[in-house]
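Journal club side-thread
Mid-discussion, someone asked how the predicted structure for our own chain would compare to the paper's figures. Pasting it here so we can look after the session.
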Amino acid sequence: MEVIIDDKKKSKKISKELKVRKIVPASLVGGYPNLSQSIGFALCQNGIYVYSTTKPLTTISMAWDEIEYVSCIVDIDDQTYLKNKSVLGRALVGGVLFGGLGAVVGAISGTGNKAKGNKLTNAIFTIAPKDDGVEEIAFRVDTKLKSVSDHLDGMVKDLKQYVPSNKLVLK
């Protein structure tokens, strides 16, 4: 495991060595004290790359053979909420399309609420280094961001590819 604090050149060199492709934004849940709350991480063929996005700029890289286990818990939450329909908007469209009667019908159809829903997916990753003197690093990937949500399946697939099954916990 290599830890670099406030050295951008060395951090970029490690990023190239690990062949970092896609960096995913995440929030630190617990673990390494020098990391800021806002981090980025990448699962690479050669290991895991984690870095702070705010000062102090800390970079941690771990090869797969330096890791005791990796845990990924995925939680999918369907959120449904009610939203008011637009009376004025529907009346305006009805009036433009069908005149006065269309405006009345549009206004009547715009009363009440409609159900809307979001699917939120949270993934909690925990990385435990083999070194007993080093804490686990736990972080949450909030997939409200569409780009992250699209890559979550790919990250789990990468974990299955890179991490031996006896070192991987998926839920």
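Post-session note: The chain is about 30% helix and 45% strand.
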